[in-house]
Design brief:
Length: about 160
């Protein structure tokens, strides 16, 4: 079975990586797909976001990192994927996720969205929080893969 894990990944956090590791054990192939929204401003470029995911997941054999601009369902159809995976951190995630899951199922009947409860260690981590703390000089090392820590240091140095 194939599954996709879509997101902005700006940048990948240990919360994302935890979901990726757990799902990779449940499926044959996991497509981690960086979704491109032309209206959104990202901190890391598309290439950087993809490279950071590739490096953070290089030990996991069945993970493929890809990108997509447009509807999630189009990517799923094109690649023969029927399962979308998302992490749920808290109740506050629920409404948005329910909306997306229902909209996607309407757009592509048969597409299932499966949720993994984020490990409680990472339940408060988000890419937004990580960026804010990093920019204000706080230590983000417990929350992100090493490559992401290096990438922030590199950006701040410049
Ligand atoms: O990491 P994020 O920002 O929570 O991920 C949200 C994402 C990228 C999965 C969502 O915005 C998305 O699927 N965008 C692609 C466009 C699309 O298909 N929109 C309709 C889904 S309801």
């Amino acid at each position: 079975m194939k599954a996709m894990y879509p997101g902005s990944f700006d940048p990948i956090t240990l919360g994302h990586l935890d979901v990726i590791k757990r799902v990779s054990k449940m499926v044959d192939e996991l497509y981690v797909v960086v979704m491109i929204n032309p209206l959104k401003n990202y901190f890391f470029s598309l290439e950087e976001r993809m490279r950071l995911i590739e490096e953070a997941t290089k030990e996991i054999g069945n993970v493929k990192v890809d990108k997509h601009e447009g509807l999630l369902v189009e990517y799923a159809k094109k690649n023969g994927i029927n399962v979308v995976v998302r992490g749920l951190r808290a109740i506050t995630d629920f409404e948005y996720e329910l909306q997306m899951a229902n909209a996607n199922r309407k757009l592509f009947p048969g597409l299932e969205t499966v949720f993994l409860m984020t490990d409680e260690k990472y339940s408060f981590i988000s890419s937004t929080l990580v960026k804010e703390v990093a920019m204000l000089g706080g230590d983000i090392s417990p929350w992100v893969p090493k490559v992401v820590l290096e990438a922030f240091k590199e950006k701040v140095r410049r």
